[in-house]
Specification:
By secondary structure, the protein is an alpha+beta fold. It is built from 15 helices and 8 strands. Helix 7 packs antiparallel against helix 9 and helix 9 packs across helix 11.
Length: about 425
């Protein structure tokens, strides 16, 4: 493991290095957790809090937005029912259409698997989610938001594409582009930080993707290196749209407490209404992390980290250019009304002096050679995936017979909650 701490001055002693490693292990583990799970965990521990507003933040347990719950669940739709999936419609899709080859990712509600379509012989990333787990944590609205946002992404080069979605009695399936250049987080772990030209290239492609989402009145809300992938050539691909908020006009706001702890903007922590500038704060945090190796206000003590985000001035070391410093100060402005992007959104980012070397037309057309090539040999090259995932065996329960699965009341409730997914027979249920 490459140490991702800022080691300036004298060489670290062995004892100090052990401390750094412990911090980084905790850092990486907690970033894999969902925010609700994370908040509940730390709320039950005795972390010291200096400010009452931080204590108030840690008591949050439920989202403030209404959930798509149905008090009168109905039976699962039959396979013959046609459900409109827009341009991604494939009402006849089912799990047995695929060879599931490797686990390439895991989350709170399921797994992502590398799969080859038996008829097409194309490779896909198939995201398989447990309906029961989603309903238990009242996250169905976020899952449906993810599908809706994926359907709207028709041509943008830096957003992952959805090919189709479908469901069995107890699972949801997203069939997505297969991207195997690795998470940005994985590469940051290995290299500690990036040189400024590389960080600028990634930040420009990320900003382009965020600007496109904003043009559709979508706020992303969960930008972090784990949700930023590299394709086989080294271009950015933004993925995981579960926390997106739709229908946010230019001056519109929302107020749900959600995101990832290290990247939460001050206005989110204050539980104030916030707008699309929350994404530009996150862009600043990711750019800072690319240049320095850790998020800007990071602390192993989460209560202290929240206090830092709310009250601590931004600290920048002198090893970056003035234009990078100016952009970071603008993006990580605690007052969202003064933040870069508050007035003209993406155009302010695009026209900032830090991005003056970027030809934006060439960028969007992928005519700029990426500063790093993942050098993957083909779809089966998994060198950039974490062995934590790829070493896990693929579940082998695909071929269960239909009479071995009971349609319980919870399954019936789940079916009603996820309208818009075509339905496949339970005999193909798996995981």
């Amino acid at each position: 493991m490459t140490v991702r701490a800022e080691a300036s001055g004298p060489t670290l002693t062995y004892s100090k290095m052990r401390g750094v490693v412990a911090i980084l292990i905790a850092f990486m583990k907690q970033r894999r957790m969902g925010l609700n799970d994370f908040i509940q965990k730390i709320a039950t521990n005795s972390y010291p809090c200096k400010h009452s507003e931080v204590q108030s933040i840690l008591k949050i347990s439920q989202p403030e937005e209404p959930e798509l719950m149905n008090a009168n669940p109905s039976p699962p739709p039959s396979p013959s029912q046609q459900i409109n999936l827009g341009p991604s419609s494939n009402p006849h899709a089912k799990p047995s259409d695929f060879h599931f080859l490797k686990v390439i990712g895991k989350g709170s509600f399921g797994k992502v698997l590398l799969a080859r379509h038996k008829a097409e012989e194309e490779f896909y990333a198939v995201k398989v989610l447990q309906k029961k787990a989603i309903l238990k944590k009242k996250e169905e609205k976020h899952i449906m938001s993810e599908r809706n946002v994926l359907l709207k992404n028709v041509k943008h080069p830096f957003l992952v594409g959805l090919h189709f979605s479908f469901q069995t009695a107890d699972k949801l399936y997203f069939v997505l582009d297969y991207i195997n250049g690795g998470e940005l987080f994985y590469h940051l772990q290995r290299e500690r930080c990036f040189l400024e030209p590389r960080a600028r290239f990634y930040a420009a492609e990320i900003a382009s993707a965020l600007g496109y989402l904003h043009s559709l009145n979508i706020v992303y809300r969960d930008l972090k290196p784990e949700n930023i992938l590299l394709d086989s050539q080294g271009h950015i691909i933004l993925t995981d749209f579960g926390l997106c908020k739709e229908n946010i006009e230019h001056n519109g706001t929302t107020s749900t407490f959600c995101g990832t702890p290290e990247y939460l903007a001050p206005e989110v922590l204050h539980k104030q209404p916030y707008d699309r500038t929350v994404d530009w704060w996150c862009l600043g945090a990711v750019l800072y992390e690319m240049l320095y190796g850790l998020p800007p206000f990071y602390s192993r003590n989460t209560a202290e980290m929240y206090d830092n985000i709310l009250n601590k001035p931004l600290q920048l070391k002198p090893n970056i250019t003035n234009s990078a410093r100016h952009l970071l100060e603008g993006l990580l402005q605690k007052d969202r009304t003064k933040r870069v992007g508050a007035k003209e959104d993406f155009m302010e980012i695009k026209n900032h002096i830090f991005f003056s070397p970027i030809n934006w037309d060439d960028l969007i057309n992928k005519k700029i050679t990426p500063p790093f090539n993942p050098n993957v040999s083909g779809p089966s090259d998994l060198r950039h995936f974490d062995p934590e995932f790829t070493d896990e065996p693929v579940p082998n329960s695909i071929g269960q017979s239909s009479d071995s699965i009971l349609i319980t009341a919870s399954v019936q409730e789940a079916a009603e909650a996820f309208l818009g997914f075509s339905y496949a027979p339970p005999m193909d249920s798996f995981l």
